[in-house]
Design goal:
Belongs to the DNA photolyase class-1 family. By secondary structure, the chain is mainly alpha-helical. The protein has 22 helices and five strands. The protein has three domains: 1-140, Rossmann fold (3-Layer(aba) Sandwich), CATH 3.40.50; 221-308, Serine Threonine Protein Phosphatase 5, Tetratricopeptide repeat, CATH 1.25.40; 330-533, DNA Cyclobutane Dipyrimidine Photolyase, subunit A, domain 3 (Orthogonal Bundle), CATH 1.10.579.10. It has a five-stranded parallel β-sheet, sandwiched between helices. Strand 4, helix 5 (115-130) and strand 5 form a beta-alpha-beta unit. It is globular and about 90 Å long.
């Protein structure tokens, strides 16, 4: 068969060779194959006013991880006789120009559920259709096709994990064959093809003082980490979320494969199959939702709900989200974001987030609960934005889903169950090694006070060279009082949602917010009077 056609594979996520149906389809029956990545200003444009170095959407840790993933992809393509063609600009404009110039007959790219890519993909597909170009856009970032599951559920996304599992069934297996060679890149014309840029070349300013994540991006690293995790068959078989130690940092208590799944350096189908293979060779193993494969199914659950829910990433006009009049308190938000809440467990986690771009899921639960329904009553969208910027594994569907869950805005409604910013961490790490590592200012504080340093006598604080209020902040709120107040507010907000049958208007929220403010003023007055009487 004569091979005359040129194909273009457009990488966005799916930064891998293994189990890559778009790449496999592009390779077949093609004389030339153009592997393209477009550096998109939407994600990479430097933002000098953001609260941390990076672009308007991502901090340096995730950008660095992403660039390492591109370098690794290019290296793996070169081993197959090809290379990654990197361009910079608005993706649709760049792609249409390349499709015309290179006379491409087949365009392949992985299906993406995110609204941003959905809108780009529609424009590209419309152009390709009018130009007679074949388009192949397979589902390979998830175990299942979210559209299929929604269709099985009468056009609605399933809103519980168990109902999702019943509809989902068994995932398709990964591709068994991996290419040993790829068709060569054709003539590229006079376009400027870039090398994968460095952090410095992208123009994010002076980064010499930045501490970078210990996790390196790329498919090679992902497969190595997967092999290491699966070697411990007993650990894989007995993995049970939400157990695990959130304070373990020298050797994290999870696989840390989430960033590799986020960028598609690791196929979730391949990961799932590898875990299933371990299960076949052990006497017993845990099951979903707590098992290791259960975590991959949770990922698909969030992808499916997000795909079928308009305005999934906001409270307003989001049908599955409780309408709650959160406080608009930037002072508390900044104290939380900058690790200055005065609660060492919370602050250490936020330092780890900034330095590593990653923390254990239970650590994420602690700080998300604290910011929202637990203590500070700040809007979950504000916390979501901080995670979205700083996490190397930040994923649109999962990040929004988890913040709604942890703020008791959707999926989980037991708002009386709160993660204590004092006792929860102490349960795992009574000596405070995690706190001492990420908050060295507290490294000499005796273990009796490490979780509540404000209770230490001044003599102890002096000896530890950490005076509370000078070297480390006083608590921004009194947890015992604040958590009680948050529970009351949540109860009233839930009652409003019940009364309005979910159709809460802006003026209803404003009215309840005014009531909360009046209640707070009254409460402060009565506390102040009590203190006067005591004094």
């Amino acid at each position: 068969m004569a091979l005359n056609n040129s194909s273009l594979v457009w990488f966005r996520k799916g930064l891998r060779i293994h189990d890559n149906p778009a790449l496999e389809h592009a390779r077949k029956d093609s004389k030339h194959l153009y592997p393209v990545f477009v550096l998109d200003p939407h994600y990479l444009q430097p933002d000098p006013i953001a609260f941390s170095p990076g672009s308007s959407r991502a901090g340096l840790n995730r950008i660095k991880f992403f660039l390492e993933s591109l370098v690794d992809l290019d290296s793996n393509l070169q081993k197959l006789g090809s290379k990654l063609l990197v361009f910079k600009g608005e993706p649709v404009q760049v792609l249409i120009r390349l499709l015309k110039q290179w006379d491409v007959k087949k365009l392949c790219f992985e299906f993406d559920t995110e609204p941003y890519y959905q809108s780009l993909d529609k424009i590209i597909k419309d152009y390709a259709s009018s130009a007679g170009i074949e388009v192949f856009s397979p589902v390979s970032h998830t175990l299942f096709n979210p559209a299929d599951i929604i269709q099985k559920n009468a056009g609605r996304p399933p809103l519980t994990y168990q109902s999702f599992l019943k509809l989902a069934g068994t995932p398709s297996p990964p591709l068994t064959s991996t290419s040993s060679f790829l068709p060569p890149v054709g003539v590229t014309g006079d376009y400027e093809i870039l090398n994968v840029p460095t952090i410095e070349e992208l123009g994010y300013g002076d980064i010499s003082q930045e501490e970078f994540t210990p996790f390196k991006g790329g498919e090679s690293e992902a497969l190595k980490r997967l092999r290491e995790s699966l070697n411990d068959k007993e650990w894989v078989a007995s993995f049970e979320k939400p157990k695990g130690d959130p304070s373990a940092f020298l050797k994290p208590a999870t696989t840390v494969l989430s960033p590799y799944l986020k960028f598609g350096c690791l196929s979730s189908r391949y990961f799932y199959q590898c875990v299933q293979d371990v299960y076949k060779n052990v006497k017993k193993h845990t099951s979903p939702p707590v098992s290791l494969n259960g975590q991959l199914l949770w990922r698909d659950f969030y992808y499916t709900v997000s795909y079928g829910t308009p305005n999934f990433d906001q409270m307003k006009d989001n049908k599955i989200c409780k309408q709650i009049p959160w406080d608009d308190n930037d002072e508390l938000l900044i104290a939380w974001r900058e690790a200055r809440t005065g609660y060492p467990w919370i602050d250490a986690i936020m330092v780890q987030l900034r330095q590593w771009g990653w923390m254990h899921h239970l650590a994420r639960h602690s700080v998300a609960c604290f910011l929202t329904r637990g203590d500070l009553f700040v809007h979950w969208e504000k916390g979501r934005d901080v995670f979205d910027r700083l996490l190397i594994d930040s994923d649109w569907a999962i990040n929004n889903g988890n913040w709604m869950w942890l703020s008791c805005s959707s999926f989980f409604y037991q708002y009386n169950r709160i993660y204590s910013p004092i006792s929860f961490g102490k349960k795992y790490d009574p000596n405070g090694a995690y706190i001492r590592h990420f908050l060295p200012v507290l490294k000499d504080m005796p273990k009796e006070y490490i979780y509540e340093p404000w209770t230490a006598p001044i003599s102890v604080q002096s000896k530890a060279k950490c005076l509370i209020g000078r070297d480390y902040p006083k608590p921004v709120v009194d947890h015992a009082f604040a958590s009680k107040d948050c529970k009351r507010k949540m109860g009233e907000a839930y009652e409003l949602n019940r009364r309005m049958n979910g159709l809460v208007r802006e003026e209803d929220l404003k009215g309840l917010r005014r009531k909360f403010e009046e209640d707070q003023d009254q409460s402060l007055k009565s506390r102040s009077q009590k203190q006067k009487l005591i004094g």
